[in-house]
Amino acid sequence: MKIVFASDSFKGSLDASEICEIGAKVANEIFDACDIIKIPMADGGEGTVDALIDAMGGELIECEVKNPLHHNIMASYGRFGNSAIMEMSAASGITLVSDAERDVLKQSTFGTGQMILHALENGVTDIYIGIGGSATNDGGLGFAAAIGVEFFDVDGNIIEPFPQNFAQIATIDATHINPLVLAANITVMCDVTNPLLGDSGATHVFGKQKGADPDARKFLEAGMTHYIDIAEAAVGKVVRYESGAGAAGGLGAALKLFVDANMCSGIATVLDIVNFKDKISGADLVITGEGQMDHQSAFGKVPSGVAGVCTELGIPCVAIVGGMGERAEEMLNFGISAIVPTINSIMPLSYALDNAAELYAMALRRTLGLIKVGSTIN
Length: 378
Hints:
By secondary structure, this protein is of the alpha/beta class. The chain is built from 14 helices and 15 strands.
């Protein structure tokens, strides 16, 4: 019996690597001489760095960067060979700024640019970066400044890269971008499809959750429009309408405009990095899962990505999940053969989180036990 464990983390309780270890232990209890393949998974969001370090045998690298308010902090990213996997939230994430400090007009993505430069200056050539969880709405202004783009006012003075200074930008010089950045292969893991501007753009969709009130959002939208007008003219390329340009407060637009980054689905990128299709070839069963499965799991989440490959190869795929939400059974139309929740009785959420490992193991025993019985039925 060859079983693959390829689950996302259960947020707040189990990480993807822990799930793999539990899975291997239980599978070997149920089946003799069981061949186990462990592939910790993530979809480009929180936990992606840890999952890929484990899956690829990589290492965690630390570097000093500026947080969204330009205070020095230590950020980390993963490295395996000449590739780096990073989450922009490690340098420019919303969790790095307290509610009391939060001021979206004074927060930038400068630290994300520093983190990318650190990897490139230390021999990395391929960057994979997830851009969820940002604190910023700067259109990638800070990131651009960190890699060498210069912003000037009407008097030729360099402008500090904060959204509050959008309107002061008169000219942009993108001719001094660090050559290492221009030579790198940068892949952005992003499932957000919003453009940069307008009602479905960065400011109006995501600005409120980052602390921008109606007046601030009006100011930011006008400033972002002014900035991108000048930036696109300086580079000779239009990116404002592209899918994902509005991700991470407009960082997606800057990555496309200044370094011609590739925007890709997070789970598709992770599956490609770990060479998932080849690794599961010949498997009898794949176990995937996530903390909460519902109808949205079909859109860019780990179970749908894993199940898609399994369907292509004709391998049964079972999802063990923390809980089942609205229309979770719709996932049965996307390659999932069965959904098994870990919850086995009425219990408080706190109990479920505190006992997640035991509950997962019991759910897996039930699942594999039924599969074992089925294999003996003629």
